[in-house]
Amino acid sequence: VTTSSLRRRTEAADGSWERFEALYRDCRRELFAYVCSLLGDPAAAEDVTALTFERAYRRRRTFDRRRGAERAWLFGIARNAALDELRRRRRLAALGGDPPDETLAGPEDGAEVALRRTAVRAALASLSPRERELVALKFHGGLANAEIATVLGMSETGVGTFLYRTMAKLREACDARS
Amino acid sequence: MREAEPLEPELLAALEAIDATLAGEPVDPDLAELAELSLILRAEAPVADPAFLNRLDGRVRARFAAPSTRPSRSRRVWGGAGALAAGLAVIVVLLVVQPWSGSPSVHPGVIPESGVTNSSAGAASSSGASSTASAASGTVSRAAPGTSAASAPAAPAPHPPAAPGRQLAQSARLTLQARAGDIDQVAQGVFDVVGAERGSVSSSHVTSEAHGASYASFVLRVPSEHLEAALDRLSHLARARVLSREDASSDITAQIGGAGTRLADARALRRSLLHQLAAADTTHDIDRIQTQLRRNQATIARDEESLQRLHGRVSDSTIAVDVSAPAPRRRHHPHGSTSSGFTLHTALHDAGRILLVAAGVLLIAFAVLIPLALVVALIAWVWALVLRRRREAVLEL
CA B187, CA B193: separation in Å to the nearest integer? Predict the structure, then answer.
């Protein structure tokens, strides 16, 4: 009986592996999108995403449901890892701050949609880092406001207000640009 | 999480519209622009490379079987802190528990191997032999090195050589150790030595209990020329070993000379008074002289006694011998049983002792570890706070 097989039996007994695997399948793309938005570097985002899942796997038995949903717990780990990476590099990637890539607008997109997306990217660049992170959590990570509140350590009401103001700011920036 | 506060209707409607849009549900036409912005934002999400996702799938399937061999920084820090705390706790527990061990463990009836000094002069050391001596008068103390019972040869204690014409008073104190059951036999050996060396026993006290505290003490007087021989024989008594030996000598030449001079003066005065008495012709003179003669006679008697005592101190030496048995520390069972065999009572007694000691050790360990844990928890909390602030600060840059 190897250590690995013993570990698998234990995981099968307590169901921790199934829960982790389901969480992984459910969140891996969104988690990468959030981390990549935060770091602005796909290669670094891949490393941080892998590190996040590895940490989550090793800490899966310490997860306390009373402290929030599993997704919020996972994104909290990712956020810490991403911010540590940013601290290490001592620079903040400009979320959505890259020069607008016109090629992202597919040929099937209409001209109006392409223009709209370009305007949104430019508006994103005008947001503060915290506002960009909120957008990343909401629209790239796909988290509910309650989950975002858990990740950011805010109240759900505060997150709602923050999101509303951020969206208003984005709309104004888009309108001004158009 | 903080208590939810009611949101304004407009704000609430916008948030619901965002969630509905992301869920693919229709929204109020008034909020169509917000819905469109939400969709664009979601479409702007970076897409993971399929190759990366395949690699990650493989690692997950393998359950991260090959983790990095190098532990993370935080794990190393906490591991080091934990090891340090554990080490400190062990050291403190050992320091606290150490005094409990008390005197060296002595099995009943077994004489400890290490030498123990029991010198009234307090000059002996516990290991090896130490000595101090002066030529005319002084004290020589020695502690016997660890030797086996009944075969402990005490090194001869050198008395300072007396210069010609000098009068020395010599004494010695010998501390022996023997088994409790051998005290009587050792005491008899002491008496035999005294008889063989033509000495006498000034006082003796022997307390012998089979399993209690046994003790014997003697004050012996032996001719000074036999002192060394007597000490040598006492040091080699069967079933006893020497713990310490103290020799003392004092030059009393001046005291003897002074006493002799005083006696000679008193005798000269007596002769003079006798002459005066023979020549006296009045009753008053005769009475006065007779009174002086009585005082003089008393003085002569005192001086003679003093001189005789001083000569006795020179001719005879005093030896104080103490014989002790190590007190039994264990195997004192209920009902007065002292059997060393294994019985239910013995087992229960020993088990109780073990539990008591274990409880004491645990209590001390908790007394040390709980404050330590509180300090560690405080440090961890502060560290987490600092780390969180540092992380948040990145977003302010």
Answer: 10
- A7 contacts in B (CB within 8 Å)? 63
Interface confidence (ipTM) of the complex: 0.82
Tally the C-alpha atoms within 13 A of residue B109's C-alpha that lie toward its C-beta.
10
Q: Any chain A CB within 8 A of the CB of B278?
A: no
Q: How high is the pLDDT of residue A99?
A: 43
Identify the pLDDT of residue A33: 94
Q: Which of residues 105-124 of A touch B (CB under 8 A)?
A: 116-117, 120-121, 124
CB contact under 8 A, A139 and B42: yes
Task: Report the chain B residue with the minimal C-alpha distance to residue A49.
Answer: B56
- Half-sphere exposure in the Cβ direction for B38 (13 Å, CA): 24
- Determine contact, residues B394/A87, Cβ cutoff 8 Å: yes
- A59 interfaces chain B, CB cutoff of 8 Å: no
CA B159-B162-B163 angle, to 5 degrees, is 150
The reply to whether A177 touches chain B by the CB within 8 Å rule is no
What confidence tens digit (pLDDT) does each residue in A59-90 have? 887 776 665 688 899 999 999 999 989 888 76
Asked whether B244 and B124 are in contact (CB, 8 A), the reply is yes
- Least Cα distance to A135 among A104, A173, A103, A99 occurs for A173
DSSP A107: T
> Which is nearest to B300 in space by CA: B261, B267, B345, B341?
B267
Q: What is the mean pLDDT of residues A29-57?
A: 92
Mean pLDDT of B21-49: 89
Q: Are A145 and B15 an interchain contact pair (Cβ–Cβ within 8 Å)?
A: yes
- In angstroms, the CA B78 to CA B364 distance is 24
CB under 8 Å to B96, separation ≥6 — which residues?
B364, B368
CA angle B4, B7, B9 (to 5 degrees): 150
Measured CA to CA, the distance from residue B263 to residue B269 in angstroms comes to: 10
Asked if residue A148 lies in contact with residue A68, where contact means CB atoms within 8 angstroms, the answer is no
Which residue among B11, B34, B392 sits closest to A160, beta carbon to beta carbon?
B11
Q: Does B36 touch chain A (CB under 8 A)?
A: yes
Q: Decide if B30 touches A, using CB distance below 8 A.
A: no
CB atoms within 10 A of CB A25: 11
Distance, CA of B263 to CA of B310 (rounded, Å):
13
A117-130, pLDDT tens digit by residue?
Answer: 888 888 888 899 89
User: Taking the CA of residue A141 as centre, how many other CA atoms within 13 Å lie in the half-sphere pointing to its CB?
Assistant: 28
Q: Is B66 on the interface with A (CB under 8 A)?
A: no
